[in-house]
Amino acid sequence: MDFSHLRALFDKENRPVGLGSIIANTNQRRRNMINTEGLLYRELVRRNTVKMLGSGVALIYIKRHLIHDVTSPIGFDEIHESGGFVRRPELCLAVPDHNIPTVGTPDSIADVYSRIQVEALTANTKRWGIEMYPMGNRRQGIVHIVGPETGFTLPGTSLICGDSHTGTHGAFATLAFGVGTSEVRHGMETTTLPHPLLKTRHIVLKGKMRADAAAKDAIIHIIRQLGAGGGKGYAYEYSGEAISAMSMSERMTICNMTIEGGARIGLMGVDQTTLNWVSRTPKFTALSKSVQQDALAFFQTLRSAPDARFDDVVVIDASLVEPMVTWGTSPDQSVPISDGRIPFLVELPLKSHPDAIKSLEYMGLEEGMPISNIPISHVFIGSCTNGRREDFHKVRDVVQGKKVASHITAWAVPGSGIVAEQLEADGTFGVLRAAGFHVRNPGCSACLAMNDDKIPAGRHCVSTSNRNFENRQGPGARTHLVSPVVAAKTAIHGFITTQNN
Whole-prediction pTM value? Predict the structure, then answer.
């Protein structure tokens, strides 16, 4: 099928100034530049490359750019000071999320620097005509929830954001990766970025998951097996029966934490579950019926061939994935909760002992200590990892008719205003409030210490977020990563557990 008439949606023929001679006969050059060998990653690179720069570096044309309040101000300032401009503002979408309070209004941002960053985002997007969902807008939320939710994220496109967890969008077969501040500026000003080609690793989650195991448990299990740095230099592609059975929310959780395993990109091929999600998003439904039909047909081509040859293949028995919890300050320092205790050093590889000792000291824990004895004081449910409607439904099902333990402070923070609307309408937030949860406004919240939602120093927080390094949730805060179900059960029982009653 000929998809050339979809260029207005995907290829954007209005290319960056100065690249006209480079991209002449682009399609033929792409075919000659990169041998895809049936690999989804290489096909996505091929489709989005305007030139090979040599030494295995592709110049990627950026078709989607998500912008938030933390990494954009410097980039915008540099553009202003150099007399430059945002070349394609219609390819950008901005959302304040990191710095904003989850209680109150924009005027209630207590930290001066945080307030300046949010105000700068508002002023810069207005100046350049970039679509933005400000605080109070029903679509405001976390960039990696808002993008897929609105349909800004599309299969086959390239997408960047000045945020580590941009890999989330790879669940839609999108070439998505996080970038630094200088790259944010370069992406806005030129709509291109150099991309060093990555090796490919196929992670097959074979068989069926246990009923009590979640996507969050699967990715923590994978990181524990391969290591926090095991994916360096790789693009991961996930498949297998367990992946096929997952919802898009669960798939986004997997891709979201791919960066915690060291990989730059996490991908999944398009299937009917992907198509069902995309076809219901507002930006997609606004297209004409004919374009929708052709786009959906195009999306279905975005998967690796059955005989594709990856640089590495890892097969994991999905039935062995159990509810997990991290005990240290790295995402690979985790154990199945059924183990009942923190590992002894002798059970860990010798080379990991220095890091393990340092982590135990920071966390105030001891080797062999029962997991149930960890003194949890806070439970945080939210973030771009687990802040979607489905995540809160799982929490609701656990806490229905129960009460949060008296010594636990439990926060429920939706990933967007749309998620909040849905959860209010279906009664989920009513159940959580009755149980004793503090339901807050959308935002990154206690995932990171850039707003008012901080965990006090020395306190232990069970969190559905993605990172557990030192001071991540506040100076001296101690973080234990878990799934939403385990977080909910911990809130009720007052200690880390998988028990139902």
Answer: 0.93
